């Protein structure tokens, strides 16, 4: 381009062409940077095309009218389905069993009680029961999260300075990636003012103490797999399953049936390994499919 501008000769007519190439290259670089950011934030291909590409709206509008090339449309549909399935069956963490923890901060006593909840009514009943139990306490500050994707969150400072109690307790739940959980932190005033920062730290540590005394589990989407094999291949199959940390139950008859819970994302690879390891002698059947508790 610099050569064309300098010479001002018969090649000057190529200047607009080089300008267009430069613009397209710049846009491509910017798109690559934005897509990298989306990947780092675990946002998928379809999100990037729709929200970050300057041509996204036009291309998706054409796609709806089936005017895009067949192979490109199929690729987009495949990626979109994969992203939606991944989001739909993503693991989440729940509170399985409640507990109680306590800390002392400058003579003030903070007692945190936790309980699994699946609805606002259950959370409200738990909060009310804690207020009745600790009726003589000055503050009973609750927080809870409900929904697989943490759709519903609530908290209250219960007459503490705004933002010093309920929100710090809720932040503890969010940072632990918990849902289906409620916490009430009760405070017995010890006669010494803690200040805004002191209250935030105290309620945060109390909530952590309550969760430390509780039991949690991951809910993962998977399948219950039935593997039927002979006694010759049993040891090889058990070795493969143990290497992946999968617990299996064996039913011994004329042959052997192994029942094992497998995460959905590992199913295909495991079946391939088992088929190769037994030279195709083992048979497989999916008994059930859905979320299960993983305490590991």
Descriptive overview:
This protein has helices at residues 2-7, 15-40, 45-51, 56-64, 70-88, 120-133, 166-175, 195-212, 231-243, 264-277; strands at 92-97, 100-105, 108-116, 139-146, 152-155, 178-179, 181-188, 215-229, 248-252, 256-263, 283-294. The strands form 2 sheets. Strands 1, 6, 8, 9, 10 and 11 form a 6-stranded mixed sheet that branches. It is flat. A hairpin with a 5-residue loop joins strand 4 (139-146) and strand 5 (152-155). The protein starts with a helix and ends with a strand. Helix 7 crosses helix 8 (195-212). With 296 residues, it is of the alpha+beta class.
Q: What class would the helix/strand composition place it in?
A: alpha+beta
Number of strands: 11
Q: Which spans have pLDDT < 50 for at least 5 consecutive residues? A: 3-7, 38-50, 52-66
Could you describe the largest sheet, including whether it forms a barrel? 6 strands, mixed
Mean pLDDT: 79
What string gives the helices and strands in order? HHHHHEEEHEEHEEHEHEEHE
In terms of topology, how is this protein built?
Layout: H1 2-7, H2 15-40, H3 45-51, H4 56-64, H5 70-88, E1 92-97, E2 100-105, E3 108-116, H6 120-133, E4 139-146, E5 152-155, H7 166-175, E6 178-179, E7 181-188, H8 195-212, E8 215-229, H9 231-243, E9 248-252, E10 256-263, H10 264-277, E11 283-294
Parallel strand pairs: 1-6
Antiparallel strand pairs: 1-8, 2-3, 3-7, 4-5, 4-7, 8-10, 8-11, 9-10
Helix pairs in contact: 7-8
């Amino acid at each position: 381009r610099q050569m064309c501008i300098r010479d001002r000769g018969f090649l000057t007519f190529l200047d607009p062409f080089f300008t267009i190439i430069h613009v397209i290259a710049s846009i491509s670089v910017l798109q690559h940077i934005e897509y990298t950011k989306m990947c780092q934030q675990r946002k998928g291909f379809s999100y990037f095309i729709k929200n970050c590409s300057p041509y996204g709206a036009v291309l998706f509008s054409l796609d709806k009218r089936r005017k895009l090339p067949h192979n490109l449309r199929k690729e987009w549909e495949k990626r979109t389905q994969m992203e939606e399935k991944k989001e739909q069956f993503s693991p989440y963490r729940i509170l399985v069993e409640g507990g109680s923890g306590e800390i002392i901060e400058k003579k003030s006593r903070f007692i945190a009680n936790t309980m699994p909840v699946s609805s606002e009514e259950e959370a409200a009943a738990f909060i009310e029961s804690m207020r009745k139990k600790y009726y003589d306490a000055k503050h009973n500050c609750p927080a809870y999260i409900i929904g697989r994707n943490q759709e519903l969150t609530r908290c209250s400072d219960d007459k503490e300075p705004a933002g010093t109690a309920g929100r710090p307790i809720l932040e503890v739940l969010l940072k632990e990636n918990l849902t289906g959980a409620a916490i009430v932190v009760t405070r017995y005033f010890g006669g010494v003012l803690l200040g805004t920062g002191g209250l935030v730290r105290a309620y945060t540590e109390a909530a952590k103490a309550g969760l430390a005394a509780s039991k949690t589990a991951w809910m993962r989407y998977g399948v219950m797999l039935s593997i039927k094999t002979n006694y010759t291949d049993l040891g090889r199959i058990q070795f493969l399953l143990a290497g992946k940390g999968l617990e299996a139950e064996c039913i011994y008859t004329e042959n052997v049936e192994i029942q094992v819970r497998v995460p959905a994302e590992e199913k295909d690879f495991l079946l391939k390994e088992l088929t190769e390891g037994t030279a195709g002698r083992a048979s497989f059947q999916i008994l059930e499919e859905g979320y299960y508790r993983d305490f590991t």
